[in-house]
Amino acid sequence: MPVTLQPLLNKLKRRSSLEAEDELALMGLPFTTKVLEPSRYLVRQGDKASFGCVLLQGFAYRQKVVGDGGRQIVALQVPGDAIDMQNSLLKIADHSVQALSTIMVARIPFQALLDLAALRPAIAQAFWMDTFVDSSIAWEWMANIGRRNALMRVAHLLCEIALRLEAVTFCGGELDTPAMTQEQMSDALGLTPVHVNRMLKKLENLNLIDRKSRAVSIIKMAKLREFADFQETYLHLDMVNN
Predict the structure, then answer these.
(1) Collapsing DSSP states into helix, strand and coil, what is residue 179?
(2) What whole-number distance in Å separates Cα of residue 109 and Cα of residue 105?
(3) Residue 175's pLDDT band (boundaries 50, 70, 90)?
(4) Strand 103-109's sheet: what is its strand order?
(5) What tens digit of pLDDT does each residue of 45-75 get?
(6) Cα(105)–Cα(43) distance, rounded to whole angstroms?
(7) Chain-centroid distance, C-alpha 127
(8) What is the spatial distance between Cα 21 and Cα 28, in angstroms, rounded to a whole number?
(9) What's the rounded Cα separation, in Å, for the pair 93 and 83?
(10) How far apart are CA 52 and CA 84, in angstroms?
(11) Which of 125, 146, 161, 199 has the fewest CB atoms within 10 Å of its CB?
């Protein structure tokens, strides 16, 4: 099957109402594809970027590295996400993007994106709204790290990933989350890898999740959401129909 920007279109259609002409214009954007193996960098902090990247397959994460080399994972990315569109205006990448799994991305020249946004206000609004949602998720991550206990933090992260995947795949029932190492989870949650392992074991003992190697399956989503103090409003999953 030919590679297209359909994952991006599906996401933006949940952000704003698009006419058929808008959809055709978006799908007609020029792009090249690139495949990266786990741990490879798509963008490095400090880079001057000339392409905006859309995640078509796999999972990635954004990260910041501080002066002593410590890493903080600040966001997870799922298929359909526009990973570094902010660099179309900011020019210099203020954080890095790294592959969590094997990924495929579409690289779109920034000028083509800017030209499309100027010609198609509905698409510009959809990208704008998508940026607002990214901010909303960032605020929730801050609250999660700053105010929830360790067990709730882990549960909350799992709930978020599952719902975002459900929105992308349009599936229900049990959902497999991206296979994160305990070190990666600890860097996303402000915990140590040992502490993350203990929390996962507790959730498993509560029969809320099941683990096979690094993969986590959610068994009882409703109970996990209640346990995590999880309210999905901040994800704004379907703004058009709300």
Answers:
(1) coil
(2) 13
(3) very low
(4) 32-36, 103-109, 51-57
(5) 888 878 889 999 999 999 999 889 899 999 9
(6) 12
(7) 15
(8) 10
(9) 11
(10) 6
(11) 146
The residue to which tokens 């605020």 are assigned? 139
Contact by Cβ (8 Å): 26, 47: no
DSSP per-residue codes, 114-143: HHHHHH-HHHHHHHHHHHHHHHHHHHHHHH
Residue 80 tokens, joined: 């359909």
Six-digit token string for 31 = 């792009």
Encoded tokens for 207: 């029969």
Structure-block tokens of residue 211: 């683990």
Structure tokens at 35: 């495949």
d(CA 147, CA 83): 27
Mean pLDDT of 163-181: 67
Contacts by residues 141-144 (CB-CB < 8 Å, ≥ 24 positions apart): 141/74, 141/75, 141/188, 144/189
Query: How many CA atoms lie less than 13 Å away from 113 in the CB half-sphere?
Result: 24
pLDDT in tens, 127-139: 999 999 999 999 9
Structural tokens at position 48: 């001057």
> In the structure encoding, which two tokens stand for residue 46, read together?
């400090």
Phi, psi of 71, rounded to the nearest 5 degrees: -110, 140
